[in-house]
Structures are given as structure tokens and as C-alpha cells.
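worker-3 :: picked UPF0738 protein AN957_08970
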Amino acid sequence: MKKKIKIINAEWNKNEELVLHVEEGASILEMKPMGQMLVDSDQLAFIYVVDKDDEYTYISIPESTWPKLKNALENCTAIYITDQNEQLLLTDFHEELSYLIENIKGNSNYGEVMVEKVEALFV
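worker-3 :: C-alpha cells ->
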């Protein structure tokens, strides 16, 4: 079973970069970005894949953060995750998210609610 870490909020830092905060108690120490994203239609979340100790960990990015993701996409802003001690740049995030958005548009395989939410915000 893959480990999943949830993002609890998103905020802009002083450099106007988007920082996604992981849930309390989660550590991102020694994580390596994989530059890959998936979709969790049931939880209405985008998933960014990281590697830690040769195992995948899923970073779950919920719908509540999507407006800031959209802004970061539109402005080509760097996106990081943090656990308050460490910070990690999510490489290839823009390309992967843009690809997923294009795939989700009008595609019922992702579920009606996911398609509606993505189309309402990103399209």
C-alpha cells in the first residue's frame, strides 16, 4: 500500500511562490519529486508522486487548494510542499497538471463530479 499525505492548506510565500502545507505529523525529509501526477476522483484531489526510500508516497492536493493552483499555473509560479521544517520543489508540476486538466475535460472516466469541478475552475 502506498503512503498518502494530505495537503491541508496553500499559501503564497514572500517570493510569491505557492507553498502547500502537509498534514501535521507528516515529514517530507528525504523525499524526491517524481514529476508525475495522478487523479483521485473519489476524493476530488490531484495526486503528486514523490519517492522516499524507494517507495512511492502520494501527496493529495484537495479541491480547496485548486484556486491557488490555477493562479500558480497561469503565472508559472513555483510550487513547493512543506512540513514546516523542510521544503521541496514539485518538479514538472505545471506540465503534469495541465496534461491532467486536458485529459479530464469532458472525460466521464474521471467521474461526473470531478469533471464538473475541474471544468468549472480550470477551463
